[in-house]
Amino acid sequence: DRIIGRGGFGKVYKGELDSGELIAVKMLHPLQGLDEDLFKNEVCNNLLKVDHPNVIGLLGYCDELHSEFVEHKGDNIAAKHVYRGLCFEYFPNGSLHKHLSGTMERNFSTVFFLIINFSYL
Ligand SMILES: Nc1ncnc2c1ncn2[C@@H]1O[C@H](COP(=O)(O)OP(=O)(O)OP(=O)(O)O)[C@@H](O)[C@H]1O
């Protein structure tokens, strides 16, 4: 019930820090085959340093590996589960796609309205 969106890399959840600040937590799909060093390099060296008014700020990340036993074809096998998440500042206005498509629908309705009215003149 905390899912606020879905993107190419996985689901995005609404979260809350101890301070009460709202955040968006993007959990990367476990099959996103990003090498551990590459992930840390991208996140630590690049994304965390980006500071620009037009770019949503990355507040932190989680990169955990859990080994667990799971049943597979009747056997118990050791599996590794990667939990990777990115925590961003929370922006409450929904998806850009929704706003753009909403605007386009309104523009199309206006055009149709004008065409119909001009055809009566
Ligand atoms: N920082 C945020 N604050 C509030 N909502 C967010 C935030 N980031 C993402 N969302 C919500 O989650 C949805 C999916 O975001 P996400 O960034 O995963 O999708 P995307 O634009 O397809 O990017 P990508 O392909 O890089 O995953 C957005 O459309 C938005 O509704």
TrEMBL record:
What GO molecular function annotations does the UniProt record carry, in alphabetical order?
A: ATP binding; protein kinase activity
Q: What Pfam families is this protein classified in?
A: Pkinase
The record's listing under InterPro entries reads: Kinase-like_dom_sf, Prot_kinase_dom, Protein_kinase_ATP_BS
Sorted alphabetically, which keywords does the UniProt record give? ATP-binding, Nucleotide-binding
Q: Where is the Protein kinase domain?
A: 1-121
Domain of life the protein comes from: Eukaryota
Residues holding ATP: K26
Protein name from the UniProt record: Protein kinase domain-containing protein
Species of origin reads Aegilops tauschii subsp. strangulata
